[in-house]
Amino acid sequence: MQAVATSMRSLARPFLKVLNFPNTTLPVEQRSFHTAQVQLRYVDWKMKRDAKRRELIKEYGAERLRYNAIKRNTILPSKLREKAAEDIRTLPLDSSITRVHKRCIISSRPRGNLNRFRMSRIVWRKLADYNKLSGVTRSSW
Fold it and tell me: Is the pLDDT of residue 34 over 60?
């Protein structure tokens, strides 16, 4: 069993070297409604800004969470809590989780998103009408 796993890993290595993914996150593949065209770009600047904020949260999120826990703990000495508050101020503002907003992956619409599909209700309805979503059927009773 282990020999098979190592051989599969060795087969995958050349392909991973060829791909050479950049450090930044790519947007989700977006398909238009009527064609199979794949667009690897951000829909608008708001989506790009949101992606940058998510990267900062990945980088600084755990650190910010620890500092906030220290700052809010009333048992600790006040000097330690003040130091934690200063350290929070040194972190980028966009590394705060409250600055991230859920957006539709196809239209970048910020409101009326369905969490399970990560798209707005309008886009979801259009895709569901044309039978483009698996597991979705029109209700009938």
Answer: no
